[in-house]
Write a structure and sequence with these properties.
The chain has about 110 residues and is mainly β. It contains no helices and 8 strands. Strand 5 and strand 6 form a beta hairpin. The termini are far apart.
Length: about 110
Amino acid sequence: GGMKVPFFFDPDSDVELDPRAYFVELEFRGESKDLMITNDTTGDTFKYSGTTLKEDYLLITSSKVLLNGESVIRNTNKTLINFGPGENMLRVQNFTGFFKLTIRFRKQQL
């Protein structure tokens, strides 16, 4: 179930990304209850136990999870979504209304 969102991740490599080498940020805006975001390509699932409203935004990075700027990492399964090279199929589940998912990434120096 849920809505599938294809995301094409094209770093300059053929190996699975080391999340420490890339800063990846997911931003979910919209309504949900017990939100789940799964990367079907890598098998990673992020779960948030809680409710988000239409005007809320949930920011997910490798080190923190913020709901409207406040840490809610204790209400998650603390799983980071990794990305493989090429197309990644993200599946968003348990949204209860309109939502927008934004993915940002940049290479960082190790």
